[in-house]
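To close the chapter, one final illustration. This time we ask the reader to focus less on the individual chains and more on the assembly as a whole: which components sit near each other, and how the overall shape emerges from the parts.
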Amino acid sequence: MAEALQKKLQSELEKYKQMQKDVSKSMSVRQKLEAQLTENNIVKEELDLMESSNTVYKLIGPVLVKQDLEEAKATVAKRLEYINGEIQRYEALLKEMEKKSEQHREVLSSLQQEYQKATGRAVAKV
Amino acid sequence: MHTTRGTTMADKSKRNIDPQVRVDRLRKEHEQVVKGCDEQILHWKKVSGDYEALDDRLRTLPDHLSFDVMVPFGPLAFMPGKLVHTNEVTVLLGDNWFAKCSAKQAQKIVDHRVKYVKGELDDLLKTRKNFEARVGFTEDLEELSNKGSYVDIREEVRSKETVVTKGKQRVAHKPNSKPKLDTVLDLEEVEEEGKGVEADEEYCKILSEKELWAKLDQLEKLEELQDEEDRLSDTGDTNGDDTTSSSSSEEEKEADCSQPEKEPGPKTSWATSGPANGQLVSQAAPGGDATKDEDEQEEEEEDCLPTIYFSHTVEPKKVRICTGKNTTLKFSERKEHSLTHSKRKKKNNGTNGHSHHELHKITSPVDIYRLFVDVKNGEPVPRKSILKSRSRESSVCSDTSESSAADFDERRLVCRSVSHDDAPHSDTSDGHTEDDSPTALPRTPSRFEAFSGTVVEKDPMPTAVPHLTIAPPALPTILERKQEEGTTDAAPPVEPPKRVSKFKAGRQNR
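The assembled structure is written out below.
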């Protein structure tokens, strides 16, 4: 009985860890996206300030490619939208993951309590 | 496994519920935040320094056509070289975008960025300040809990005592008129308990009881005084601070009033069970009387137009109309008496010589409240509100309509017939008028004509209302009374027997 509980506990724990990892991953992705968002905003502002006399280049690999100012503005705007969309998607994903991890947490805690009752706190053997 | 251990440890710490530990942790968290802020601030300061240097460089670049520089050649070597086209600067806009600009334009961009950096820096400084303040607070908290120079004032709420005694003795007729003595006394209690670190329960109990009595007395006196001052405008009593609780003193005050005043204590039996003292009851009564006196007086003064009669069925048997049978008639007589002699002092009502026992003497609004009593387990329990619907169900009395006279008239008409039913019913057994009203309705039309025009009060629509829907049972009393008065002479003796039979039938059916 106690062993079975322990195994259950272990498996639940693994799942929970996995969930946590996923959550943290999505969090980091989201943070990156946010940074990109701010950057692109700055670029957009700069481009707006720029007059058409000076040329705009885009770094593609080791090459600086000449770009049209208008094209550049359009591209940056599109990229901004894309980033916003990604952020929202990741936010939704994060929420779901949070909920799942909460559920897992509850399950874990209940299992733990059972196990403790059964074995009297032998869990802390490690 | 370590996580499980961590959780068990967490459980342990939770179980300990050591405020000290928690406060420590809070402080640490705050400090960590402050550190983070510091680091970021450093970073941004560096950035702004860099930009300033850049700005300088950009300014000097266009001075010469070319510059002699040592160009870094790999990681370890430099090479002498020249900077040419010094006005052309390729600026990184961000996200792999570049723009070729003149030096001045580049400078503008740099200025832009410097502004942004400064904004970030300011934000960070603010947050840092906030968190430093928070750290200070948590430290203070620690001191409070640890050093013991500050004592946590805890007052055990013995709600049962206070609520019971207060609730039973003072019905909140005027919830807003509670004098400030309440708060004063409460403060005293709190102080005493706070100072005495060991607040013994017994000590508190004794204190609270005494305080309660004194409080109650003062409250009632204050309320009386307020009422008098407000309405009567004759009395100049300002003795609100009397702490002596004696019914005699209150009666004296009453006597001082030139207006008809409350009845003396004994009449009002505020059905309070338990801790109700006779003293308190008597004092409560005047307080309650005051409010009702007000009502009745106002109504009496307005006598010329709508006449409001209070008729209450104190006990099942007495009630209403029933012409030749009962108390209620006498009731009405009494009311007429009081109405005609509007200024008559209520004290004289005691000499009306009714055979009823005191409950049925309604000479002041207090009596009404007295009559609205829930008979529970054989003991009358006072009710706080006589206007609520439930009064009809369980109460002995029914509501008096304090609504407009118009409604009045309508209901009066309808209920007249109803009341007929009610009277015999009440005579016989329980005064559940509402129950009988539906049964009574089908008979209304015949009865209705019988009573038209015989009512004393103004009767705008004598025959126009037979089709009215069932009046809310709230008003049968008033209507009954009107019927009574109207039909003192004209009450057809034929009616009562019918009523009785049908009532009995109705009752038996239930």
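Residues 174 and 291 of chain B are 8 Å apart (CA to CA). The beta strands of chain B are 67-73, 77-83, 88-94, 97-102, 373-376, 379-382. With these observations in hand, you are ready for the problems at the end of the chapter.
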